[in-house]
Amino acid sequence: MSAFELYPWQHEAWAQLMHDPARLPHALLLTGEPGIGKRRFADRLAAWFLCEAADRSTAPCGGCDGCRWQLAGNHPDFRLLSPDDGEADESEEGAKPDTKAKKKSAIINVENVRELTDFVQLTSHRAGSRVTLVCPAEAMNTAAANAFLKTLEEPPQGARFILVSHHWRRLLPTVRSRCRVFALPQPDLAAASQWLAEQGVVDPALHLAHTGGSPLAALEDASAEWLPLRASLLEHLGNPGALDVLAVAAEFDRAKVEMALLVEWLQKWVHDLVSLGLTGKVRYYPDCREALSRLAPRAAGMTAYAERLFDAKKLAHHPLNARLVIESLLFDYLAALKSAGSPR
Ligand SMILES: [Zn+2]
Asked: Measured in angstroms, how far is the CA atom of residue 154 from the centroid of ligand 1?
């Protein structure tokens, strides 16, 4: 793969952005669904700003000092502001966290932004641009966002800001309004499937279903180390009569499954149960259609349970007793099925 390559579904957006490069704004907000490759697009744009090739057209050359430093991850005129700072290369943007819970901050705090402000105010080492990438921008807490806003409002000469956001509505409106919003596309099923097949994924459509259509998440879905755990959970959910809650909770506790991931699997299952009853459609787990169909007639209590899961998701990053939380989620699942009427 050559340097700073785009995903196949991004070429049109890139061409559109580069239609008149001289008029690119100093602050650009890249928006779109998680797992569509916004980060890669942003990295290419950052490299383009830092490229020093005399004949630089609308793509970073990949060979000049600026490009090579950027590729090596040590360009002096580039800063990444990210809660995953230092680990940012480890996983693609939008990819799911891995099974083992890692200790890392989920927010960008005001101290991080203050360091950035010092960087932005300096003159460029290479007499060119100074580029800041904020990813994801919604990770800034309010104090951080307000501090960042000051920098955005009075940008020094040559300062460029690229903000990446999966949930742009969560940004401070004042920050949003200082940026040009540029929405990146989600590939259609055919394009996403073709790309996944090229990566060696055997059943692209199934993995795209599991992730709601995000190709990067689907790629991980095809090979993640937690796959057997999810398969086990879905198996249990599909056989509520035989579900031994205490044993299953202990199993998942031992495996140290990240709570947010577990809740998400439950949410998708419940979504499919309800959707199957209402519209006959299964969105996320077409491979479990049979079990879902058996349970769909008993899904009336699932709407309340979905709200329960929504609350659980909000608490998923807090250090609660995982085993107890899983037990209570599974007991509530069984109760929601019973409340719907006569079990068969
Ligand atoms: Zn270059």
From this structure: 28
CB contact at 8 A, 164 and 46: no
Q: Of 1, 131, 8, 140, which is closest to residue 70 (Cα–Cα)? A: 131
Q: What is the mean pLDDT of residues 192-207?
A: 96
The burial class, CB within 10 Å (0-12 / 13-18 / 19+), for 335 is: middle
Lowest-confidence segment of 128-137, 170-179, 334-343 by average pLDDT: 334-343
Distance 63 CA to ligand 1 centre (A): 5
Residue 122 DSSP class: S
From the CA of 55, how far away is ligand 1's center (Å)? 9
Strand partners, 134: 81, 163
CA–centroid distance, residue 187 to ligand 1 (Å): 28
Distance from Cα 36 to the centre of ligand 1, integer Å: 25
Reduced to 3 DSSP states, what percent helix, strand and coil does the chain have, rounded to the nearest 5? 55, 10, 40
Better pLDDT: 88 or 134: 134
The CA 47 to ligand 1 mean position distance, Å, reads: 7
DSSP, res 188: P
70 CA distance to ligand 1 middle (Å): 9
| Residue whose token pair is 């950052």 | 46
Q: What is the pTM of this model?
A: 0.80
pLDDT value, residue 116: 87
Domains along the sequence of the chain with CATH:
8-183 (3.40.50.300), 226-339 (1.20.272)
- How far, in Å, from the CA of 66 to the mean position of ligand 1? 6
Cα 61 to middle of ligand 1, angstroms:
4
Distance between CA atoms of 75 and 221, rounded to whole angstroms?
33
**How many angstroms separate the alpha carbon of residue 23 from the centre of ligand 1?**
20
